[in-house]
């Protein structure tokens, strides 16, 4: 314990639910969040769902004094919603946009338009290199019949792979965000197993906040009560995860969540509760990265489970691709038939005009519209098939590597 | 020189031009490529434009003996076209899809549908960790008025950032591919300056092949002669780049290009010439990675130049977004007007039916079609604006870091 000094790092993570025109009392809440951040003086702030760049700019101006460094990640139609505020200089950034993120035609579930991504921020604090990741995965709209599970699993896999490949020169890895997965879900197990990241809630020496560390709770006045019915205590989907890579140890001294409105305030910061962790980072003689080797068998099971789910998604996507392709071909045939009929009439082959003009035109437009839409959807599902297939392949390669490891060493 | 043994690595890189139904004599050429690879027994083969998974599978079967390890990168509608064959085991892979890649409505330039990406393959050869990257950037269709320059620059920047962030644990970095940039272009200078990668052609101790290392030459029977008119000698757009990161040195002993059809064959392998490099890798006492620090000022100039071009693209994208948005609003207004007129007629407000039914319907369909298309394009250009803006930001951060470096250290 003595000798090397300890670095104490206070981290704040929140899904801000700041959707322009849609989120309730957005501007008021963004102001409250800014006040809280200024008051508490965290070292590092990881925010999600800051969809409006104006909100980010307002926060940036307000927080310039205590968080002189910040970054907003841009992607997709609406944005990634991800941003970082920091007391320490940001040396470098990188954005990785997930290859799958729902469907553009599911307008009521706007995820596709958000360009869901993982943002990486590299920092050096007291000589220690931190790779800080912030992300927000695809939402779960129906737990019993979760059509987006394969997409979320692809995202969890890409997140894990991105972290593994980019963090090799880092001393400490931190990940904060709304992962939209319950703690025991296969995606979380995959992410933790494949990266060796540890869950601040599970590791914390002290905890204070909502029961079981839940971050989506029925008591919050902004949550959808009907969605929370199966979970009377709430659910935990917002996480702070960490690991030390080189000769450092990280311990979570304290984890807190907000519990609805802060004292003296009328409303909560968001429909999610914030997660706040206090980490202790210390240099140690021996590397602490032996998490992976010991649990290879369990990890292989998780990867297999995830791969099965991705396979289910792959077959569904293949069916969709096939049926939209067939629809496009049928629409094209109908159009060609109509064109032939029209040409026939023009050439005077038919004695009289066989159809009323209006219905003929309407039918032509309808087939054209179906052709365009079905072709677009066929193309979209082709991309989906490619990405699911690619992920299945990568997971297979990972499994092979896991199985070969004992015989090699 | 003595002491540590030298690793000799032979690398083959080729844009295969294997587009199903479109490329001339595709199957014959893929067979020839397979023969050549089997005959020559390279250590590492980096291929682009292998669009058909069937072609990849055929090659894989054919090359199973001499290249037991391979990987095909899947992305986009058609695929990434990227694949790797190797004599040595592939330990891990990662795909990064570029955020910008042309326009879906430029059907004659099919780049958007290809999901242009950079693929990473991690290998360990004789105890040396290799990060091997293979990529294919957006094509240049008109050099004088290159509408895709901002997109290609974003890709070059993302490629450089991806390499920097993922290669920190590697001993040697290799990049092969069709970069679609001439050696003196700003994108190449940006990539080389920002990553420290060296050009095998420029560094080679021996060279054999097309003059100036050109890989797109008028003598090749598959190249478009009219496009080559301004470049009678051809152009060099296919590269093998490399650098040693830790205490290794890499030297290019020999670089070769093919020169049209190989002896005894009637046709060339592709419309591009293949690039073949023989590298020498040796362990050394001192790290050889001092390329960056020495040329900071020149690098800042390159980043500034690239950022200016990205800015030009950003303003063009903003104009496009605005005008498609305006078009969508106008179409919506027209539709509403028609709806009002139709309702008025139904309610018996107008004495008689004021317009012929057919024209009325046609107009409604036309406005609807314009509304849908214009909204789609508005959304697309919004994404484009986000990504160009994000890259401009990242480049600004890089410039700041470059300017601050001398004062720090």
From TrEMBL, chains A, B:
Gene Ontology MF terms: metal ion binding; sphingomyelin phosphodiesterase activity
Membrane topology: Multi-pass membrane protein
Pathway: Sphingolipid metabolism; Lipid metabolism; sphingolipid metabolism
Catalysed reactions listed for this entry: 1-hexadecanoyl-sn-glycero-3-phosphocholine + H2O = 1-hexadecanoyl-sn-glycerol + phosphocholine + H(+); an N-(acyl)-sphingosylphosphocholine + H2O = an N-acyl-sphingoid base + phosphocholine + H(+); a sphingosylphosphocholine + H2O = a sphingoid base + phosphocholine + H(+); 1-O-octadecyl-sn-glycero-3-phosphocholine + H2O = 1-O-octadecyl-sn-glycerol + phosphocholine + H(+)
Key word Disulfide bond present: no
Transmembrane intervals: 328-351, 357-380
EC annotation from Swiss-Prot or TrEMBL: 3.1.4.12
Keywords for this protein: Hydrolase, Lipid metabolism, Magnesium, Membrane, Metal-binding, Sphingolipid metabolism, Transmembrane, Transmembrane helix
Domain spans labelled Endonuclease/exonuclease/phosphatase: 15-272
UniProt GO cellular component terms: membrane
Cofactor requirement: Mg(2+)
PANTHER family the UniProt entry points to: PHOSPHODIESTERASE, PUTATIVE-RELATED, SPHINGOMYELINASE FAMILY MEMBER
Descriptive protein name: Sphingomyelin phosphodiesterase 2
Protein species of origin: Ficedula albicollis (Collared flycatcher)
Lineage of the species this protein comes from: Eukaryota, Metazoa, Chordata, Craniata, Vertebrata
Gene: SMPD2
